[in-house]
Amino acid sequence: MALAASTMPFAGIATLLSKTAPSSALPPSSVPQLRRPGSFRVRCQAENPQEPATPVSPPPEASPPPPPKVSTKFSDVLAFSGPAPERINGRLAMVGFVAALGVELAGGDGLAAQLASGDGLTWFLATASALSVASLVPLFKGVTAESRSGGLMTSDAELWNGRFAMLGLFALAFTEFVKGGPLV
């Protein structure tokens, strides 16, 4: 309705002009020509009907590219930007954070008291050694964490959980230092 009402005045003006102005009042040079000078052709290049169409075979299915070669050199695996340091430290931090909170809840000892007593030193060394070896063996065989991740347990989720566990251990130690005793 609004569209019809908005075009109505223009239609009325055109009708009024056509009735009042004689058609011969406009000089022929001011009337635009609708035809282009010369001929304008459109050609289509199609297959020649005399030649039989050659069947087009589908492209061969592309196989997925092979995974990139991963360096298994000791210096590359344990380099600062290599795959091992952050992953191993994150795994140890996750175990350490849970163990520190568990011992604190069970015995009431804070993180500083746990470290000062030295009672869990053998357990710490055994756990750290076992996790480090278990993390390094696949890397030295050329298996990456990204190739083994999928679903809910992705390699990125493990890295982020390890980072948060590192921050959690630091926050636990800082909170106990400020508070002057165990968190719980």
Automatic annotation (TrEMBL):
Q: Does the keyword Transmembrane helix apply?
A: yes
**Signal sequence, renumbered to the chain:** none
One GO cellular-component annotation of the UniProt record comes to: membrane
- Indicate, by first and last residue, each region the UniProt record lists as having compositional bias (Pro residues): 55-69
Places the protein is found: Membrane
UniProt keyword list: Membrane, Transmembrane, Transmembrane helix
Q: What is its main location?
A: membrane
Q: Which protein are we looking at?
A: Uncharacterized protein
